[in-house]
Amino acid sequence: MSESGATEQEPDPTRERLTQRGGAGEPDVLLDIPEVTVDQIRLAVDGLDADLSLRARLANLLQIDAGVRVHLQGAELDVAGVSAEALLKVRLEKLVAILDRALSTIDRNPQVIDALARTAALSIDDVNRAAQQLAGGAAAPMVNQTGQQLGTVGAVADRTLREQVAEPGPTPPAPSAGPQPPEPPTGPGAQAQQPRRPGA
């Protein structure tokens, strides 16, 4: 672990270089702390990692993201009697120029939007095709199994019909040309059951 103690502000060589250039070389993001007074600082850090990012984007061409990420491992900080002034400047002239140029390009070349639309349409087609393949892949085994079962049932029915045709059996009566009167009953008590006809 490292420890540091500070009681006064040291001159910043970066700030001196910026002042000598007349401010023309100032970065897009500037954190200026002109005055800090601290009675006592004790800092012990195992690991420190800090990232500052600024990203711009328009549609699929440009996106704006800004962020800071700080990661500390095993830090101890004791501060006593602190007073500070801080100035944070975010200069977006370059970012505005980038956005203006991107919008001007789209204005002068509307086919860029057509190309983006075609790319989106192709992506949608790819998603639809993949969904159909997934749906077809899930349904294909079921359809295949059903087809096999229907084929088996058809083969059994065909074999049964062929066997019925090949075996000699009683011939079914031929259909009659018109209505037939009922046949009289036969047997020992058949005459008692017959209704009498008028005039007989």
List the helices and strands and how they pair.
Blueprint: E1 2-4, H1 13-20, E2 29-55, E3 65-90, H2 93-108, H3 111-166, H4 190-193
Antiparallel strand pairs: 1-2, 2-3
Region (Disordered): 1-28, 157-200
Biased composition (Low complexity): 188-200
Biased composition (Pro residues): 169-187
Description:
This protein is an alpha+beta fold. It folds into 2 domains: about 110 residues, no CATH class; about 55 residues. The chain is built from 4 helices and 3 strands; from the N terminus they run βαββααα. Strands 1-2-3 form a 3-stranded antiparallel β-sheet, with no helix packed on it. The chain is elongated. The N and C termini lie far apart (about 135 Å). The N terminus is likely disordered.
Give a quick summary of the entry.
The protein has helices spanning 13-20, 93-108, 111-166, 190-193; strands spanning 2-4, 29-55, 65-90. The protein is an alpha+beta fold and 200 residues long. It has two domains: 2-109, no CATH class; 111-166.
